[in-house]
Amino acid sequence: MKGNDLRKGRVIMYKGAPHQVMDYQHRTPGNLRAFVQTTLRNVLTGSQCEARFSSTEELDVADMYTFKGTFLYADGFGYHFMNSQNYEEVMVTDAVIGDKKYFLLDGMEVELSTFEGTPISVSLPKTAVVTIADAPPEFKGATATNAPKPAVTESGWKLSIPNFVNIGDKVVVDTDTGEYLNRA
């Protein structure tokens, strides 16, 4: 793959370790050759670094194995998934799953990626249905101002919701941003 083909989310080999592209910018300074400025995250250690590649430079793509899985349960050791192809159980650590843990539901179908047998990423569906556990009561005159109010889901995620949504209501949330989309 050439430097020009880098995109956010791609995983490349950099300094002997797999790095995920977190951000990239294609730059062409005045009279110099074009280059790509990137922010990379080492998928094994989680550390971030800046790197610059020529737009024509050949880059090695990390040899990753991606498969579909089903969320089973969470415990003190991590989050457990079943590989849908061979029915093996795969454990993902809290560091790998990050804020996505707030949107995991029992039986949810996800996509897992591994590098040399180690889980490095989990991709959730675009949206998830969650239940509001705590929110201030609706107040009169709110339709005139249309101001959002803070809320907390059963899993502990904090978000802003419209005034008409109450405790116990199910809402659809974007799993990438964590924002309220609509009522379920």
Q: Which of globular, elongated, flat, extended, rod-shaped describes the shape?
A: flat
Provide the helix percentage. under 10%
CATH architecture level-2 label of the largest domain: Roll
Through-space gap between termini: 42 Å
Number of helices: 2
Point out poorly predicted stretches.
Answer: none
Strand content: over 45%
Total E-strand runs: 15
What is the mean predicted local confidence, pLDDT?
A: 89
Strands in their spatial order, largest beta sheet:
4-3-2-1-5
Q: Output the CATH topology of the largest domain.
A: SH3 type barrels
Report the sheet with the most strands, covering strand number, pairing sense and barrel closure. Answer: 5 strands, antiparallel
What is the gyration radius calculated from CA atoms? 21 Å
CATH classification, class level of the largest domain: Mainly Beta
Helix vs. strand class: mainly beta
* Order of H and E elements: EEEEEEEEHEEEHEEEE
- Tell me the domain tally: 3
Quick take:
The chain is mostly beta strands and 184 residues long.
How would you describe this structure to a colleague?
The protein is mainly β. It folds into three domains: 3-61, Roll (SH3 type barrels); 65-123, OB fold (Dihydrolipoamide Acetyltransferase, E2P), CATH 2.40.50.140; 127-183, Beta Barrel (OB fold (Dihydrolipoamide Acetyltransferase, E2P)). Helix content is 4%, strand content 49%. A five-stranded antiparallel beta sheet has the order 4-3-2-1-5, with no helix packed on it. Strands 8-7-6-9-10 form a five-stranded antiparallel beta sheet. The mean pLDDT is 89.
